[in-house]
Amino acid sequence: CRKLNLLSKDQRITVQEYKSVVDNSGRHILLDVRPIVEVDICHLPFSLNIPLSSLEQRKSEDIRLLQQRIIQLKQQMADDHQPPVYVICKLGNDSQKAVQVLEKMSGSELDSITVKDVCGGLMAWATKIDPAFPQY
User: Fold this and answer.
1) What is each CA distance from 120 to 1, 2, 62, in whole angstroms?
2) What is the model's pLDDT at position 98?
3) What is the mean pLDDT of the segment spanning 126-134?
4) Could you say which residues form the signal peptide (predicted)?
């Protein structure tokens, strides 16, 4: 598998940085953009699954679901910050594409958000954070 490099460094975080967000109870949305068949194999329990293809096609029910999660998160945050959305996939390629799609939608089709890709995806999570996490 070729590793894509579509985003700048400030549009990405490492799995270790993402783990510290989780450990510090940082309010955020984790968006898993893998196809549902892969999500059924394994996923992080707090993730929201919307496949990359749905985002690219702007499927209204999926966009609405994401928008609802963003609104809920904004209400919980109760400040003016843009809610952070971290995007994950298996290897970190589709998630980069999804970040680009979401950045185009931010402020127009969706409320304004801060979007970052989790480098290396779930396979990096499995090797660097949780060795018990299934690899496929």
Assistant:
1) 12, 11, 24
2) 97
3) 96
4) none
